[in-house]
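From the pipeline queue, job 12 of 40. The input is one protein chain; the requested action is below.

Action: predict structure.
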Amino acid sequence: MADAAPERAARTPLVTHPDGVVRCFWCGSDPLYMAYHDTEWGVPERDGRALFEKLLLDGFQAGLSWITILRKRENFRRAFDGFEPEKMARYDAAKIEALMQDAGIVRNRAKVEGAVLSARAYLAMRDEGIDFAKFLWDSVGGRTQVNRPKRISDIAAETPQSRALSKRLKARGFKFVGPTIVYAAMQACGLVDDHLAGCHCART
């Protein structure tokens, strides 16, 4: 799940914004965050490269707020060549050092190096004939798992599916793919739909 504002979450799991739209509490009042909530989070993503990007961004988010990553997302895309695995897999020490000097991204060496290793893992899967999108979607049987929580406490930080997928990704060589990070990516990419009951995005 995207990061929550604890003081708001303690009062209500839903927020009615000035535009009259009821949304999940965690998107706050930042227009960028609200747009992400409305148009991206929980929407099924089937494109392998886009899934790869979101998985990596969730890894970079660990320990930070998601709005920080959203604000830096275009910088990340520029710095990481559009998250094209073919380009990222060729990054050498000089490129990694250049990324470590880029104030537009999260300059965590382990995460930067991990992203490169994950790109190589992605390509290794492709070379074996494994479709990355199918690999991820198989974790939920190919269809969005709709949970429709009513309370904050109903929203899981990780699930048996995310733990199993995390294990499979790690075995393939992906980095920063613990079960909590993986579950956040599953939520973001619509493998699961955790929009709260009453949210305008909760259509089922």
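Job complete. Residues 146 and 193 are 5 Å apart (CA to CA).
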